[in-house]
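In this supplementary section we document a worked example of the pipeline. Step one takes a protein sequence of length 317 as its only input; no multiple sequence alignment statistics are reported here. Step two produces a three-dimensional model, which step three serialises into structure tokens for compact storage. The input and output of this example are shown verbatim.
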Amino acid sequence: MALDETLRTFLDRFKLPDFSKLDWAQSTDRLRNSFYRASRSVERDAPELADISTLAVDGADGPLKARLYTPLGAGIGPGPGIIFFHGGGFVLGDLDSHDMICRRLAAGSRCRVLSVHYRLAPEHPFPAAHEDAMAIWHWATQRSDLLTMDPERLCVAGDSAGGNLAAYLCQELNRLGEPAPAFQLLLYPLVQFADISTKKLTFQEGFFLSERLFDYFRDAYIQAESDRMDRKVSPLFAPENDFRGLPPAHVVLCGWDPLKDEGRAYATKLAAHGVPVTIREHPGMVHGFMNLTAVSVPARDAIHEAGETVGRALGAL
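The serialised model returned by step three reads:
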């Protein structure tokens, strides 16, 4: 299927920095500024919510910034909730860059959404983000009074690298025998950090992954080559037993995404080990398209649809 035309027009204006002479600080700043400009916007049709509040949560090495979204009709007592990890290759992203995704996810699911800004690379390399994700999970399940979330009806969710953190959490909690999420929402997830060179890359530039951008993210976060296959950061290659007993999952894929095949492979592995899993592919969309709701109505609809899937799974709808 052809690339969505509204996205094509936007992507024609988005260019990656020159990686030929790599300077981590300068290149990272340029990437972050470009990403923030592209993903932050004021949208007139943004869904109305009951409340949006800021708070601090306990990370693995200190407090982290977080934002709690409460949709209309969420109720007073502890109810179902979503812990959301933003994408950005472990280098980009923050609470603002994914604000609209969380607003629309909360409205679509009728669940409270806790969005947390974990530590980023290259300032904080592997396994900092993964350690934060585990600390955030433990904090959230112990603070149901503050969050008004039922710890037995929680979904972990994330896009791209955030999907990696969500998948890791489900596997790790399962390995440890600890209480696990009731559901996982993986939005075009990054589930392996070993290699992208064998993938079918349709484009080399734009608001999506290219081979050089993937390598940039990988090298910023994974400093030791031997860690690329670590099951924390490459859950696709985890031992077979790590897939048994995982929470039900919904996996969202994009037709124009070099990570599509590995996302489908991960969903297939889940299903092969008895995990209830559904897949929704958006053929005309690119990696990261849910950050483009300002220019794409289908992107808005896709987030709402994913939210409804979670809401039904957790009993909110």
